[in-house]
Amino acid sequence: MMVLGIDCGTECTGYGVVKQSESDELICLDAAGIRLSARKPMCERLLAISKSLSAVIGRYRPDAVAIEDVFYAANVKSALKLGQVRGVAMMTAAQAGLPVCEYAPLAIKSAVVGYGRAEKIQVQQMVARLLRLDEVPESPDAADALAIAICHLHTSATLRRQAMGRA
């Protein structure tokens, strides 16, 4: 299974593509941040996000997209802008025919670190360890996107095991 994780942001939207092998090994195929100029109009930033994510989807053909659920925004204007970015990311995935799964920040941290209130650096270090990376990804947004993808892979594996237990 291959998952595209997306960490939405108005200045940088991170993405990470993680594949789970037959032997359950997690492999990082790609991770980066889509940098957006705050000086550009929001419509141009949203278009850049859509084009970049479409290119990643076309290159890797993931089975699913995982995205962080909205949890907190400093103010209403920030929340609205973040909602626009999330909407574009979700629409881009839907246009490619991919299912989109949303995860709360606590669920992501729990799946990756084992503790829902883990610090950002703990998540980044565990992402590097789980993916056998030489170092923590340069972009914190990319590291968060990888964590979201890992969360989806772990959650999917757990649900599959539970379904097999019922059969």
Structure report:
The two termini are 22 Å apart. The chain has one domain (2-166): Nucleotidyltransferase, domain 5 (2-Layer Sandwich). The protein has 167 residues and is an alpha/beta fold. The protein contains 5 helices and 5 strands. The protein has a 5-stranded mixed β-sheet with strand order 3-2-1-4-5. It has helices at residues 42-60, 76-95, 105-112, 120-130, 140-166, and strands at 2-7, 12-20, 26-35, 64-68, 100-103. The longest helix has 27 residues, at 140-166. 37% of the residues are buried.
From the alpha carbons, calculate the radius of gyration and give it in angstroms.
15 Å
CATH class (first level) name: Alpha Beta
On the 0 to 100 scale, the average pLDDT is 93
The description of the largest β-sheet is: 5 strands, mixed
Helix content: 40-55%
Structural class: alpha/beta
How large a portion of the residues is in β-strands, by DSSP E? 15-25%
User: How far apart, in Å, are the first and last alpha carbons?
Assistant: 22 Å
Overall tally of structural domains:
1
Total strands = 5
Q: If you consult CATH, what is the topology? A: Nucleotidyltransferase, domain 5
Tell me the number of helical segments per DSSP (H or I, 4 or more residues long).
Answer: 5
CATH fourth-tier homologous superfamily: Ribonuclease H-like superfamily/Ribonuclease H
Strand order in the largest sheet: 3-2-1-4-5
The general outline is: globular
Low-confidence stretches: none
CATH architecture: 2-Layer Sandwich
The ordered H/E elements are EEEHEHEHHH
